[in-house]
């Protein structure tokens, strides 16, 4: 029996540890990203579905908001200075929008890995390929639950364990039709040295 559309759209999906997905989030729809076990980061990127040259921009967003930590009520802007989505709920209040998705090079340079994992970058590249988006077009992600405190005097940053506990979540609402790339982050430091899944759910706006 066919399910009604709303039931299909409210299905909770799980991203296995160290992997990623991509999907379309229509304008007005909401995406709930949940940390089911706690202390797990999810990297999020977004592209205008109708013109993927338009992509979320940490520079534009941090500039217009005049702050580096985003939370509920904050819009996220594109490279063309249009609002792509807005954060509408946030149970954690600490996310990063400064650092690029972890990658094989991240693991080689920071961790000294000889055979590095492809990281969120590689996972996003694979997930976004069907949408015609190549790896060179992956920007700095909005790193949900990533905890990067900054020393305000020196600018030195640290990657600390996420403040998210099991079941904590963040909800965004799309302000245009967007292609979303989303991962369960693969970097040891970002996730307190344990790789966990990320859950997500798409719902229609209230
Ligand atoms: Zn990552």
TrEMBL record:
Short name of one Pfam family: DUF1989
Domain DUF1989: start-end pairs: 14-179
InterPro entries xref list: DUF1989 (IPR018959)
Protein name: DUF1989 domain-containing protein
Species, as recorded: Parvibaculum lavamentivorans (strain DS-1 / DSM 13023 / NCIMB 13966)
């Amino acid at each position: 029996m066919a399910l009604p559309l709303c039931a299909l759209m409210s299905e909770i999906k799980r991203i296995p540890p160290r992997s990623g997905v991509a999907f379309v989030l229509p304008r007005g729809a909401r995406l709930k990203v949940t940390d089911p076990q706690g202390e797990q980061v999810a990297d999020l990127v977004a592209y205008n579905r109708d013109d993927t040259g338009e992509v979320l921009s940490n520079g534009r967003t941090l500039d217009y908001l005049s702050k580096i930590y985003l939370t509920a009520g904050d819009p996220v802007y594109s490279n063309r200075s249009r609002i792509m989505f807005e954060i509408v709920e946030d149970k954690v209040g600490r996310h990063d929008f400064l650092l690029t998705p972890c990658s094989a090079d991240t693991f080689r340079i920071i961790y000294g890995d000889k055979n590095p994992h492809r990281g969120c970058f590689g996972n996003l590249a694979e997930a976004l390929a069907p949408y015609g988006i190549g790896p060179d077009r992956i920007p700095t992600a909005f790193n949900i639950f990533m905890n990067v405190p900054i020393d305000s005097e020196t600018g030195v940053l640290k990657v600390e364990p996420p403040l998210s506990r099991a079941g904590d979540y963040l909800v965004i609402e799309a302000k245009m039709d967007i292609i979303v790339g989303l991962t369960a982050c693969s970097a040891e430091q970002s996730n307190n040295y344990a790789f966990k899944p990320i859950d997500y759910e798409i719902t229609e706006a209230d």
